[in-house]
Amino acid sequence: MNTSPTDDDSQAVSEATDLLVLLVDDPTNASLHAKIQKWRKAKPAHDAAWLSMVDIWHLTGDIGPVALPLDTSTDSQISIGLPKSPASPRRRAIFLASALCMIGLGFLFGDDIRLSLMSDYRTGTAENRIIQLPDGSTATLGARSAIALRYTPQARQVQVLAGEVFFSVRHDDAHPFTAIAGGATVRDIGTRFDIDKEKDRIVVAVNEGNVGLTYGTAAPSPERHMTAGDVISIDLRSRTMTTSRMDPGEIGSWQQKRLTVSDASVHSVVETFRRYYPGIIVSYGEDLNASHVAGTYDLTDIPGALRAVAAPTHVAVREVGSHFLLIGGKLF
After folding, report:
1. Per the domain annotation, does 298 fall within a domain?
2. Which residues of 110-139 are buried (b: 16+ CB within 10 A; e: fewer)?
3. Buried b (16+ CB within 10 A) or exposed e, 284-299
4. Which of 83, 98, 115 is the last residue of a domain?
5. How far is CA 267 from CA 46, 246, 304, in A?
6. Are 204 and 232 in contact, with CB atoms under 8 Å apart?
7. Is residue 2 part of a domain?
8. What are phi and psi for residue 155, nearest 5 degrees?
9. Is there a single domain that holds both residue 241 and residue 124?
10. Whole-angstrom Cα distance, residue 278 to residue 85?
């Protein structure tokens, strides 16, 4: 039976987590109580998520907040007990760790097992690794990335299973080189290029030389010719392509532990940060998809980088304990 949470469930749990952390920090805030009451009434999923979060909070050993049945009257305050004292950062960290299991953290272990079985090479958190391919080409894997090799006497193929990979290809007309990520196929025409495979998008960028890009399986799109500085982002939900340009020298900058982006959504930048952060980043809200940023960010200081990304868009970032970051909602 499939027990994976839906997108709506995951967002509700993320929002409930954020609200509960705020309440523990400021338990006498009347406007926050009213906000939580209104949020719980908005959707059944909200109230269910709230009750689940409070149950988990109790498991950490804290006596409150205590969630009573939701009062349906229009002018009632939220039915919730208050903690005797603010929770320690350690306890909040324990709570968040438990809550995150509900929104998909447990499924990461399944992904790790799947990638271990499917991949020939993979990397861990904040780990970059240069792989020498059998033909003399190289593939540099970014953090939490994985590839599988499919070399035959006739052709060379590398499948990007997860994460980001920078290829430096030794051109050989007799043995064509292709890299596959999802439904995208990149054909080498003598080049250095980068592929970033995320859950909902694939980005191909050319550092040097030329590539041919096709997308689709049943009815592949016509091949698009890309040269140095070309960037194509494929939205896997809408199946649309967006083209842009950036300085070729900045493509693959993550190999030097810095990330350079141009007109990237905050959501996509956060996805990259997750691969370099030895902890958990919780994000929520449509603002992360709608807001775009440009700049260079230090991948060795993810909390600082996250704040730098959030500042221009006035998105809130909170650090809970030493290994939990929350981003979402507007700054007050």
Report:
1. yes
2. eeeeebeeebebbbeebebeebebeeebeb
3. bbebbeebbbeeebeb
4. 115
5. 22, 19, 16
6. yes
7. no
8. -155, 165
9. yes
10. 29
Q: Report the alpha-carbon angle 252-208-177, nearest 5.
A: 95
- Domain span at residue 82 reads 7-115
Based on the domain organization, do 13 and 44 belong to the same domain? yes
Within a domain: 133? yes
Identify the CATH number of the domain in which residue 156 sits.
Answer: 2.60.120.1440
Residues 230 and 330 in one domain: no
Q: What confidence tens digit (pLDDT) does each residue in 54-96 have?
A: 766 654 444 444 444 455 444 444 444 434 444 455 445 445 5
Sign of the torsion angle spanned by Cα atoms 20, 25, 26, 32: negative
CB 120 within 8 A of CB 114: no
Tell which of 255, 282, 306 closes a domain.
Answer: 255
Asked if 54 and 73 sit in the same domain, the reply is yes
Measured CA to CA, the distance from residue 84 to residue 79 in angstroms comes to: 16
Return all residues near 2 (Cβ < 8 A) that are at least 6 apart.
none
Question: What residue type is 85 in one-letter code?
Answer: S
Residues 107 and 168 in one domain: no
Please check whether residue 1 lies inside any domain of the structure.
Answer: no
How is residue 68 annotated by DSSP?
A: P
* Same domain for 135 and 204: yes
Domain count across the chain: 3
> For the segment 298-316, what is each residue's pLDDT rounded down to a tens digit?
999 999 999 999 888 788 8
Give the span between the Cα atoms of 258 and 22, in whole angstroms: 32
Phi, psi (deg, nearest 5) at residue 142? -80, -175
Cα angle: 205, vertex 208, 209; to 5 degrees: 105
pLDDT digits 0-9 by tens, 161-178: 999 999 999 999 899 999
CA atoms of 68 and 79, how far apart (whole Å) = 5
**pTM for the whole thing?**
0.70
